[in-house]
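Data deposition worksheet. Section B asks for the primary sequence of the deposited chain exactly as it was used as input, without tags or linkers unless they were present during the calculation. Section C holds the resulting structure in token form. Section D is free text for depositor observations; keep each observation to a single sentence. Incomplete worksheets are returned to the depositor.
Section A, Depositor: J.P.
Section B:
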Amino acid sequence: MTDLFTPSSQALAQQIVVQIERGAYQEAEQAAAQARGNYPDDAELARLHGIALMQLARHADALQALEHAARLAPQSIEVQCNLGSAQLASGDADGAIERLRAALRMAPGHPAVLLTLGNALMAAARYAHARESYAMATHGAPTHPGLRLNLAAAELELGHVDQAQVHMEEALQLHPRFDAAHALRGRILHKLGQTGQATQAWLQAEVLSPYNPAYPFAAGQSLEDAGQLTDAADAYARTLRLNPNDGRALSQLLFLRRRLCDWRELDDLSARLQQAVIDNSAVVSPFVMLAEDADAALQLRCASAFAASIDKQVAPLRKQQAFTYAKPAPDAPIRIGFIADGFNDHATGLLMVAMLEALADDESLDLHLFATTPDDGGSIRRRLASATTLHDVSPLNHAHVAERIHDTGVEILFDLNGYSGRDNAELLALRPAPVQVNWLAYPGSTGAPWMDYLLADKVVLPDSLRATVSEKLLRLPRCYQPNDNTRIVAEPPSRAECGLPEQGTVFACFNNSYKLNPAAFARLMLVLQQVPGSVLWLLSGPDGADERLRTAATAAGIAPERLVFLPRLPHAEYLARYKHADLFLDTLPYNAHTTASDALWAGCPVLTCTGRTFAGRVATSLLLQLGLPELTCEDEESFIAMATQLGNDRDALVTLRQHLSQQRTQSSLFDMRGFASDFRRAVQAMSARHRIGRNPVDLDL
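Section C:
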């Protein structure tokens, strides 16, 4: 009921519009609710109330208000567009599409309807139809920069990068200070491999819209890809200041601090990360969690939350692709796919190549590699291509890679990345193959409903850890990690040329810098204190990491010159350096993996401490299969004592190296024909269950 002192509905509506435009959504919602009490039959007030409620993420209330507006003004195109947006925000893309197509019949060619319809089609992963809707809308609104930008986004999803660039530039011509256009320019340039220009585009978007946390985060990712880790960490810190609950930014900031050996606020960042997983308040990186002092149950909880977010994100596209799988003939070879970013002179390629060569002549298997990075021109890529059918899918987006894998008829697909490297989660969530297996690069459970098996062994995943694995567990009778047993270990330069002293024990730890946390470093410093004349040989880290470690050594009472740093070298040169290393000292909670097998193959003994997670038990698995259980320790104290004892006993180190030399040829660790035989049995077991319609189960070979 109104009186003489109540403003008109038009005046109230104008006030609410002003509040919405300046982002005062709470005030706008309260004002709209009060105004509707005075004018319950005013469609515009109901519509504005719905818009304010949408901005506050009160989707059900927004739908109610807008549906009331639609009953009051059934011919209002504006209301129908808002209702479509509200349905879209509440997760009902199909309902929004149906409503907006009905509105389009009322107002053919209406650009606002076509724009909103395009948005709904994008959300439903119907990218070609979305492109058509946006393109039609541009005829009615040729100077609307947002339409051009949305058209560019649709083309990008379709894999048409050049056309996306054209429309993005059109948007910038119409609105040179359009922050979202600069951000999309960053995505396009990154896709084209122009990382530096992509970074500048995202930084420009951040300048234009300094309160949008998406822009510094994207800039951080680009800077990280370019190896500018300090600047990337700064960008992630800016993101966190804008959005303290951004789990992705928290993950990457913590991980970069570890890579840089910049241990400022490390305990606080780590505690925040783990608490976010416990509280389920943010989605954080499962790979980053592997380097944290967390148990396997918390790692699984982290991975499951991450997988759930990916599953929700790709659900519309999965529905559109709707892959079905032809049942192979009983006598058909098992078509196996492997997808990774490392089918080059990279850890993954080096681990896999000899095993794949051992399987190359097996007519019961049909091997296909899907390489998500371009050919580096190296020998590993050539060997892999000779042993298998290699598909270079590096130019393709996830949807198109999934289509390629499915069209190839892969029966069992091995994801050799997991959540590490170029994460394949979005691709695997599309289910391009009927049987999907997590193996090799990600030492943990994915927590993902689209992964059927995890290939491991009984040491890295004993029965006591079974409850921390979401996949069915397939355990090999040997260490799960293959190796290239064809490598020649050359003679290295002299000790002096390597920066090493002529005398004294050389302890080595060539693990990546993010594994060398303060606790692990402190253990190494205690060993140096108790072995006079010894040095610690480390892999050189990025952006001042070496100097930070020297400073930390000084603080621990160790002369900084007792730390020697190995620069990044080609694999053969790096492998040769192990001939100067007396003992490799491992890290926790994340062990040496490929690095441990490198050291053992090159004849350098590895001393490890068995951890409580998959990532912390890999070196133990390698050593036990090699027949060197005496080099596995159960706790930190025995690790320090053993390292100290060996470091002070030159004869013991010589004996140990000789014993390793014998075991290297006599044990099964580097027997790739034997590994290939076990792998074949694992694949046959999975295939047999699939072909007779049985669900995956735990299997021990």
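Section D:
Residues 609 and 636 are 7 Å apart (CA to CA).
The chain has a mean pLDDT of 95.
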